[in-house]
Write a structure and sequence with these properties.
Length: about 325
C-alpha cells in the first residue's frame, strides 16, 4: 500500500495505545488545545513552482482545514532564512539546499519527504558532450549559486561517476534563462536545470540530458525535497506538526490519484505557471508516493556524500546528524 495512503488512513483512524507515542483521538485533541499554535494562523512558506504544489493542494482541497488548522500561504524567496528564524512555521525545499544549513544550526526539522525527481544535468544535443566524463575540465553552470542545491546535486552526479567535483569540474553561476545561450556561445558546457524549465529545449532538440535525478536508475527513487518545520515550532507543538504533516500527505496522495485535476487547480490558483500540457508532463515524472523509509535512505546517502566532499564535517557521526535533522512524525502513530 502506498505510504501516502497509509498516512492518511492512520490520521483518520483512532490512535491506539500500543505505540509509545500514540494516544486516542480525544487525548490528541486535548493535548493539541494546550499547544501554543492551537487556534492561531500557521504560516506556510511557499517559494513557487510545481515541486511544492502539495502545499497549494493541501490548502485548496481543504486538507489543512480537515485537520482543524488555519493556514496562510506566504510567498517568499529566502526559504532557509524564513523557516530558521520563524518567519514561517513550515516550508518545503530541496534536501540539497536544506541539509547543510540545518546541520550547521539553522533551526528546522524535516518530517517527511515530498517527491522524487525534478532536476537534471543538460548539455547541447548536437555538441560533443555525451556523458559526464566528457565534462572533465569543462565548465558547468549552477543557476542558484555556488554551494546551493544545483551545485550540490551536480556534485553527486560527478562523484557517482568517479569524477572529482573539485579537481575535474569548473563551476560558474549562470541564470537558467541565459544558460542555453551560454552553452551555445561556449561560455559553459553544461547546466543543472529544473526539468520543467528545460522541457521545451529538450523537446525541440536543443538540449540533451546526461545525468538526472528524475530518470537515472541510481537517483530516481531518491527523495528530492522535504517537508520542514521550524525547530521551535516542532518542539512546542508536536500535535500541530503531526497535523500539518498529515494534511501534506493527504495532498500528496490526492495528487497521485488526480494528476490532471491537480495541474488544473495549481494553474488556476497561480501556484504554478506554464501551459497545461507542459506542467502535466512534469507532474507525471514526480513520485509523490515517496516513503519515509526511502526519504531516510536518501538523507543517509546525501550525508555520506557531503561528508566525503567535505561540505559536511566528516568527523560528525552520521546517525547523530540524521537524528538532528529528521523526525518522520507520522511513524509514531
Amino acid at each position: 500500500m502506498n505510504r501516502k495512503l497509509v498516512a492518511v488512513l492512520a490520521g483518520a483512524a483512532t490512535l491506539v495505545s500500543a505505540a509509545a507515542f500514540a494516544m486516542t483521538k480525544e487525548e490528541e485533541d486535548a493535548a493539541w488545545k494546550k499547544e501554543p499554535a492551537y487556534g492561531r494562523v500557521i504560516n506556510v512558506g511557499y517559494n513557487g513552482g510545481l515541486c511544492l504544489g502539495t502545499f497549494g493542494i493541501a490548502d485548496i482541497k481543504g486538507f489543512y482545514a480537515e485537520e482543524g488548522l488555519k493556514v496562510k500561504i506566504t510567498r517568499m524567496t529566502k526559504d532557509v532564512d524564513a523557516i530558521g528564524t520563524g518567519k514561517v512555521d513550515v516550508v518545503g525545499g530541496h534536501i540539497a539546499k536544506f541539509i547543510i544549513p540545518t546541520v550547521n544550526g539553522v533551526r528546522m526539522k524535516f518530517t517527511t519527504g515530498i517527491h522524487t525527481g525534478c532536476k537534471s544535468l543538460y548539455v547541447l544535443a548536437k555538441g560533443d558532450i555525451k556523458n559526464t566524463k566528457d565534462l572533465v575540465g569543462k565548465t558547468v553552470a549552477v543557476p542558484n549559486g555556488i554551494g546551493d542545491s544545483d551545485q550540490n546535486i551536480a556534485m553527486r552526479f560527478f562523484s557517482r561517476d568517479g569524477i572529482s567535483p573539485f579537481r575535474d569540474i569548473k563551476w560558474k553561476v549562470v541564470e537558467a534563462g541565459v544558460s542555453i545561450m551560454a552553452m551555445q556561445n561556449g561560455e559553459i558546457e553544461a547546466a543543472l536545470l529544473e526539468d520543467q524549465f528545460a522541457r521545451r529545449f529538450l523537446d525541440d532538440g536543443t538540449l540533451r540530458i546526461v545525468r538526472s535525478l528524475t530518470y537515472d536508475d541510481d537517483f530516481k527513487k531518491e527523495a528530492c525535497c522535504v517537508h520542514a518545520v521550524n525547530l521551535d515550532f516542532y518542539n512546542e507543538n508536536p500535535i500541530t506538526v503531526k497535523k500539518l504533516t498529515r494534511a501534506h500527505e493527504k495532498a500528496s496522495q490526492w495528487i497521485l490519484d488526480n494528476i490532471d485535476e491537480s495541474v488544473r487547480l495549481l494553474l488556476d490558483h497561480k501556484y504554478v505557471t506554464g501551459n497545461f500540457d507542459l506542467v502535466q508532463s512534469i507532474q507525471k515524472t514526480l513520485d509523490y508516493g515517496i516513503s519515509d523509509q526511502a526519504t531516510e535512505e536518501t538523507l543517509r546517502l546525501i550525508i555520506r556524500d557531503y561528508q566525503s566532499f567535505g561540505i559536511l564535517d566528516p568527523r560528525l557521526d552520521p546517525d547523530k546528524i540524521l537524528k538532528k535533522i529528521w523526525d518522520p512524525v507520522l511513524q509514531h502513530d
